[in-house]
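Example 3.2
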Amino acid sequence: MRRNPTLTVLSLCTVALSCGCMMGRQSLYDDLKESRAEAFADWKREKDSGKDSEALVSGKLGLQDAVRLALKYNKTLQQVLQDKAIARGKVVESYSAALPKVSLGGAYTRLDEEYSPNLLDNYSAELKIVQPVFSGGAIPGALRAARLYAALSDETVRGAAQGVIYAVSAAYYDTVLAEHLYQVNLDAVTSSEAHLSDVQKRRQQGVASDFDVLRAQVEVSNFRAEMIQQRNRSHLAKTSLFRAMGVSQQSDAELADDLSYMKMQPVLEEAVRLAHENRPDLYQAELGVRLQREALTVAKSSYWPSVAGFFTDTWSKPDARTPTVNEGEDLWTAGVQVNWNIFDGLSREGKVMQEKATLKQKHIALLDTQENAMFEVQQAILALKDAEEFVDSQRLNLDRAKEGLRLAQVGYREGVNTEVEVLDARAALTQAKGLYYQAIHTHTLARLNLKKSMGVLGPGAGNDAVPEKLDVPPASITQFETPAAE
């Protein structure tokens, strides 16, 4: 019995398809777990070898350097940068709609001897060229859409770059604040330990009670506990900074820049103008409207016929049953083909209705983005004014707390004030110092938020490169006066 080769091939395909379908959920997760295990093994090898695949930062680290490293190593930004490559591919792809289509085909037929004993081998080759001429606006619409998409990808990258600059700057300032608060609590521990030593001496002289000593010891323990907690916050803040930068968590950098206080008097109208001129999200929303207009143009093109010119050249060696064509004859044809789908009205009309509604959505989204931008600018200006008042009040409060502790200590030595009053004054000074640094931090972030709301943290509109020079809020090495431990 002779086996049919076609049935054999179909049977093999069916078996292969069945085997593929049998790979179920459990097999998939087994494979995923194996991949995760390999990733952990790679991590462990790096850890044991002392090498790190990520950038390792050490030494002095200024804010500008932190941002530059982030623009190079931040994983989120690296992903967004691939949008530019995707956009370039779409531009190249769009040109195919206007270029001629060239196809080359061939066929070979082997005839049985009983049908054609004199002409067993039959073959043909065909070259066909089709050049689109008119498509109702679809071709130019696709080309314009591709260029708009490229601009949209540039604005997406620009927005991501500004987001990275903001995140790293904020994390840097958070780390600086955490280090200051740690130092404040460390100073409080040193000061309270000095006071405990003084109380113990006075107890030996008989001018202080056991309660005074116990109270001073409790104060030292409380300040030390707060210092430990703040030290942990400082470590966590620095790891968050390294994460935002995209560098290794094994980095050991010392922050070189400090919090700075610079008064600003922004004008609302000018800030709004800068926001309209620079914010990436406004450009993205505007480009979204223009892209949708092109999509509507393409949808409307289906109302018109498509026209294309064509040329076909065929060479063949026919079988014996086609005597009208001589063996090896070369045939060519040329002409114009018109396609017009006149019985697709409902589908066409429905598509146009969808694109019109989507265009209206894009317009509303643009207006909403503009309103949100104005809201953020106004909020940033108000927050900046409040932050300035906060700084001014805490600077005065810090001076008062320093003087209050000095007077309490002098009175305690002279027997006028009690030890509880000294402890309260020291706690008030510690709190005042912490609030002072928090006020400076709040004002620094308020300036940062204002620049973010105006879209001026990074490259300007139309700049398709990740910036080398950055415009971030000035950070100077300004050591604010820290009251010495009494």
